[in-house]
Amino acid sequence: MEKKLHPANKRGTANYGWLNANYSFSFANFYDPGKVQFGLLRVLNDDFVQSGMGFGTHPHKDMEIISIPLKGEIRHKDSMGHTEVIKAGEVQVMSAGTGVEHSEFNSSNEELNMLQIWIFPEAKDLDPRYDQKDFSELLKKEDLINIVSPKTDQGENSMYINQNAYLYLGDFQDGRKIEYKLKNKEHGVYVFLIDGEADVENSTLNKRDAVGIWNTDKISLKFNKPSKVLLIEVPMN
Questions:
Q1: 187 annotated among ligand-binding-site residues
Q2: Is 76 annotated as contributing to ligand binding?
Q3: Which domains are seen in the chain, by residue range?
Q4: Does residue 73 register a pLDDT over 90?
Q5: Phi, psi (5° rounding) for residue 20?
Q6: 82: annotated binding-site residue?
Q7: What is the signed CA dihedral for 10, 13, 19, 24, rounded to 10 degrees?
Q8: Which of 22, 106, 148, 173 is placed for a possible disulfide with 167 were both Cys, Cβ 3.0 to 4.6 Å?
């Protein structure tokens, strides 16, 4: 087993007034040669957006994009004809493929906190697509909930992306222990602790800390406080 810790206070940051951004990997004006990506996971941004503000229309291409609002709501509009609102408890998937333009704004009266994840697709120039789903009821189960999976191995409740990757969200009480078995021995798993405190393979994570783990077929987690966690399993090459 190999692992690399990613402490929250070592992330890249940028404060634009309307946007307070935290970058787990090199992004925009933040560049760290040791934090370009984890396997095929390219971006994990933790954004805080003021009410009424947001990202104007901009393009994407050849990327699988997953957006997870933790607080507040996102008003999304894209060149595929979708105009949607994504609220906390919901997850949005967008495959940029041959090219898509979209905008994202905070349409609530409170600060929006959202995670945005980019994963490289299995091939270039795929058809753009959009999906959105409410997981709020499933997340009450105190278990890892599969929110995203590959099209070839789509879970019963998950949405799919064009990559052999799996994303899980979970809310856990203190004292809970779980084991996660990787789908493929060539994969790694990036554990991002959204809130709480957890021991992950002899490393203690606090709020917004993360650890990337590979060369193993399973990992164990123990939650020392009520916690919310995101697991991202991706091919390592």
A1: no
A2: no
A3: 2-235 (2.60.120.10)
A4: yes
A5: -115, 110
A6: no
A7: -50
A8: 148
